[in-house]
Amino acid sequence: MKSAGSATVVATAASSVSGCLGGNGSGGGTLRYGRSSHSETLDPQDTTSGEVSKVTNQIYDGLIDFEPGEAAITQSLAVDWSMEGTDVTLELREDAQFDDGTDFTADDFIATYRRFVDEEYEYHVGDLSSYGPFTLGNWIDSVEADGDYTLNITLTDPYAPFLRNLAMFAAVVLPKDAIEGDFDFATDANGTGPFQLDKLDNSDGRIKLTPNDNYWGDGPNVDQLLFIERGQNSTRTQALTEGELEIIDNLGPNNIGQVEDSDAAEVQSGEGINVGYMSFNQSRMEAFRDPRVRRAISYAINTEAIVSQVYSGIAEQADQPCPPALFGHNDDLSPYPHDTEKAQSLLEDAGYGDGFSFKLTTFQNARGYNPAPMSTAESIRTDLREIGIEVSIDDRQFSDYLTYTSEGKHDASLAGWYTDNADPDNFYYVLLHPQVESPEGQDWVDWDTEGYNTSNRTAWANQKFMDLIEEAQQTSAKDERADLYHDAAQLAYDEAPWVYIDYADEIRGVRNTVNNYQVSAIGGPHLHLVDVE
């Protein structure tokens, strides 16, 4: 068993997958998970990256979890709960320990909460992640422990998705002793989950996890779990078919056939709960503050061609922020058609008939909601040239892209979102509500506004939209919430703060030697349940 603080940060590259970061172990063997990007931090409170959560979800537990492959919530560190109005009570598990042998108690969650959002707490991490406010901070008035294994939480207002927020990766529980001690959560880890950190190799994009002997639940069923970066879709696919990786994600449309033709692996898929889009940064670009310009660009970009040709049909066209899998999706809307003449007319009405130019920032590495980012950006550039708009492409490594766009330096950006809690609020509020007041007489805010929600990459601040979202948060009846979100979807369609591109399937490549793996659109991946022959 590893003691807290003992994980090794490797400064030199491993010579092979089975070298420095392990190989075929005894008993359960090794599970090698190939992905497009490495995790730059292991601190779940210092990131907005799904790549980080793939790792931290193996090490840490939340109070609540999601059923593998489902959107239903289930027990984790909490075994029972109730929510009535603003009062939430959770009964906690009494048999959970961190991997250093320390018992988990209610005080660990309280310290975790305070580290994330309480500016008066000595160990508050600051505004490292935009997740802090919308996961916990905006909703909790107080948290108190009733003994070691009961939590009483009082909300500021009724908030329908709160229990689902407790299942988000950003709400996992950290140990109080480590929070208040000299522990670096960026490079080390100490959780109650099925795995513990063994080696972190930033130079070679690899992370090695081993079983947590103190884990309270079932599994894990392997001796080692390796997360391995393979930036290119083709390289990752080849490694799968040649037996160097057991599971790969972000499988590109051009590589699906290669896996399907392999006798050693198969494609596994499931309905995604995600959206891919292009954001207009209204804080930076004056032209984007006019909805006629935004609609013009939406008409000019042929999203049908992007989905069918660039993505090879592993996604469908988007027409609103909320994906079809969630109850807040408005079925009465349809994607913007490709109409260059209408686009040109709208530009002329807005005073931009002669066009203008902007920089489109994108990530280089494939993502599930955008499996071909450079090809997508090039298609957009070609389409917009037809209406006199010149686009320059600014492509960046994913971690750099996240930092750059979170600071509002982009004119426009290709972006996307995987659900955190399978609730419409996670799209409407998190991605398009500024979480600050809307300025009088305008529907955008300056990026530097104190408290601004930087996950809203558009700086859009439409008061009518904000009112609908806030009302939906405080409405308990599902059908009433759905009606509010349908109205919000119509408004977001008409005002076009994004170019809605796609809703993508969840696609994985899996070796035939892998058992009990399930594609999950939310939470996970639940790799502690997997075994390898």
TrEMBL record:
Molecular function terms, GO-annotated: peptide transmembrane transporter activity
Start and end residues of each stretch annotated as Disordered: 31-51
Keyword annotations from UniProtKB, A to Z: Signal, Transport
Extent of Polar residues compositional bias: 42-51
Gene Ontology terms describing biological process: peptide transport
Pfam families: SBP_bac_5
InterPro entries attached to this UniProt entry: Peptide/Ni-bd, SBP_5, SBP_5_dom
GO cellular component terms given for this protein: ATP-binding cassette (ABC) transporter complex; periplasmic space
Domain Solute-binding protein family per the UniProt entry, residue ranges: 78-435
CDD domains in the cross-refs: PBP2_DppA_like (cd08493)
Family per similarity comment: Belongs to the bacterial solute-binding protein 5 family.
Name of the featured protein: Family 5 extracellular solute-binding protein
Organism: Natrinema altunense (strain JCM 12890 / CGMCC 1.3731 / AJ2)
